[in-house]
Amino acid sequence: MASHALTKEENAEFLSFWAALFFVYGVMGGIQTESTRASSVVAVRDLSDTKRHPRLMAAGLMSGGVGALVIAVISPALATFSLFQHPHIIAVGLILTAILYSGHSALAGILQGSSHWSTYGRFLILDGMLRLACISAAAAWSLGLLGLEVACFCALGAWLLMLAFSRIARQSLQIRADVPLRKLLSQIFHAVVSSISSAALVVAFPLLLKLTTPASVFEQSAPLLLAISMTRAPIMVPLQAFQGVAITHVVKAGSEGWRALHRPILLLLVAGALGAVLAFVFGPSLMLLFGAEYGVSGLTLALLTLASLVMALLTLTGTAALSTGHHRAFSSGWATATAVAVAVLLLPLSVEVRCILSLTVGPAVGILVHLLALRRRPTSTVDGRVA
């Protein structure tokens, strides 16, 4: 939609803004993963002392407040490095995003962990429809780059609408954690560190590319950035929706641990390989639907699809590490993946080669870190206590 409403140069900036916005979403997503794990444990155990533990929503909002403070401190960099045409408006929007989306993440995590899947599904639909309606209106009314950027903030109120109209959503506010506040905040911290790294690779990658690429080259990179998004979405979007199910499944699997994910991993490998073939054959023609200037080769699209497969495997191994109580390894794997990916972007290679290698090698190293941790005894199972 943005590719038709904006010029090629404006669309490159919009994709950078979109990356920044969903980077914040991704960071706050750490609250969702830990809320899912904690509420899953509470749901399958008879814990008699949870009244001494904090409510998950309160802990989530506390974490969001810290995130908003961090964004406020670093927001002057948006103007210093000329990342956006309207840096002050974007900064305020991102600060509000950190606060409001932390509530969104906590609610989503609790609904998943408590197995309220129908309510969670309605929540996702409401969020997506609200965002689509606002962006469509901004594009239809030709509000330009800033109008589209402001419209993207509209979906932040979706969780408040859920609380207003859903009894189950309101009841979820009472769900408490399975551990004391200090332990919970520590585990949220590890989840957020992982989410920062995940968001850097999954949604904020255009920003990393912009910071490591000459401006004249980056301005022409909209086709490649769009190709990365298009090859990633068919794999990562369903997987991210499945992540809560995976956490709950591993927690309930008890001593079986992460081996409960062997079948999803196999299905993912098959789907990724098939997707790469389809991207090679049909991808170039589909890219031209965005305009004649959005041509990308079939080989590039196939390799980007395989890179997305590696990213998806990293997501699943990370989910397994979190679900079995290996919070430190969970964050270390993602942080290592990001560090390696950024290092690859600094190599003196073409922009396409750097992107493909960065999105493949970095996640592969992160997977290795997770697998080394998963060889150890699980510290969180349904028939044991959380370490």
UniProtKB/TrEMBL annotation:
GO cellular component: a single term: plasma membrane
Q: Which UniProt keywords apply?
A: Cell membrane, Membrane, Transmembrane, Transmembrane helix
Question: Which protein is depicted?
Answer: Membrane protein involved in the export of O-antigen and teichoic acid
State its location(s).
Cell membrane
Under the heading PANTHER family, the entry gives: O-ANTIGEN TRANSPORTER-RELATED, PST FAMILY PREDICTED COLANIC ACID TRANSPORTER
- Provide the membrane topology annotation: Multi-pass membrane protein
InterPro entries, alphabetically?
Poly_Biosynth_Transport (IPR050833)
Q: Does the keyword Isomerase apply?
A: no
Q: Where are the transmembrane segments?
A: 15-35, 56-83, 89-111, 123-142, 148-168, 188-209, 221-245, 265-290, 296-317, 329-350, 356-374
